[in-house]
Amino acid sequence: MATALSPRRAVPLGGSGPEDVVADSRGGVLTGLEDGRIVRVDGLDDPDRTGVKVVAETGGRPLGLELLPDNALLVCDAERGLLRVGLEDGVVRVLADKVAGVPLRFCSNVVALSDGTVYFTVSSRSYPLKQWIGDLVEHTGSGCLLRLAPGEKEPEVLLEGLQFANGLAASADESFLVLAETGRFRLVRYWLTGPLAGRSETFADDLPGQPDNLWRAPDGPIWVALAGPRVGALELLHRRGPAVRRAAARIAVRAPFRPPGTTGVLAVADDGTVVHHLESRRARFRMVTSACESDGRLVLGSIWERGLAVCDLPGTVG
């Protein structure tokens, strides 16, 4: 049973599409905007002291973010590939922009482990970000999971055939990764250690919506953004042949899009158990693509909106 997802306040950013949100150790939140800026937002819990500061510009379209211990930021840029951004000097460095000689496009989310290994997803090799709906409609299965080992210049493909590979998070002990497969409404576990290392399996299936970015809370669960509800007509279309799906995708990428009113977030434990399900069916803040905890609040990002939303964490009093 879902509980209500009710934002307490909106935080305008002076730009569109804060697709991913990550909390830093100072109680602030970092996010990337449609125009290429990466901003830090401080004072989220107090309108009188909220501040938005530009820390870098990628020159592309930043999506998934991952903070590093040395005060740098990993950025999945949908146009430029995998980037490393210095938060003190704003210097942007390309870590990887090709795989097997093919330019990296539509990089989606990223996680770094304690040994310096970086894992990241590519949502689609068939459609660019601006036509993302085409991939979900056609059901191309062209998403993938990649690994960039320390010192390497080109990533290795670990998993292919994913239906819109999206959010990524590591388990608390770094024995496996959890990956959001948006087009299959599920989370996938990819084992990094142990007898199943290198294998994947379903981690949480039949989710109530389309999973997007993932973020692990310190000493807590993995937050899963649900960008939209399940759509019966879309699931029926996925059972049709490739030609039918391609024709539907051509129409979808040209049609006006407005997100549905139903959106939500899940919190999932490392055993795959859903510990929280928050949902709004008449959301004013639509298409939640990310969620993180910051300063005792739940902060939501959206590729559709022009700001962030701040909510109470489950079990807290406003």
From TrEMBL:
SUPFAM superfamilies: Calcium-dependent phosphotriesterase. GO terms for cellular component: endomembrane system. The keyword Endoplasmic reticulum does not apply. It holds the Pfam family Str_synth. GO terms for molecular function: hydrolase activity. Keywords: Glycoprotein, Phosphoprotein. InterPro entries: 6-blade_b-propeller_TolB-like (IPR011042), Strictosidine_synth_cons-reg (IPR018119). It comes from the Bacteria. Residues 114-194 form the Strictosidine synthase conserved region domain. Belongs to the strictosidine synthase family. This is Strictosidine synthase. It comes from Streptomyces populi.
